[in-house]
Amino acid sequence: ATMLTDAADLVIQGDGKFEELMVCSHEISASTAQLVAASRVKAGKNSTKLKTLQSASRNVNGATAKVVASTNAGRRQLDEVSESLEGLASVT
Prior knowledge:
Keywords: Cytoplasm. Residues 1-92 form the I/LWEQ domain. GO terms for molecular function: actin binding; clathrin binding. By secondary structure, this protein is mainly alpha-helical. The protein has helices at 2-13, 18-42, 48-91. The radius of gyration is 19 Å and the shape is elongated.
């Protein structure tokens, strides 16, 4: 999670890459899935803690998907602004 916030800070400051932010999001999602899979092996079928973990995992997946979607939207928006500015610069 620290890597995700560090990557987000760098992107906001203009020193990071959008791809790094998306990779961090995917890594968090994958790590969470791995944790749930390992827990499934050790926990009983009716474990309430496992059900809570699975619910939390779904929330993590939803949150990381939103980070990726927001990152893509932000990147597209910056690309559009850059193209507009380039168009204005070529007119003058």
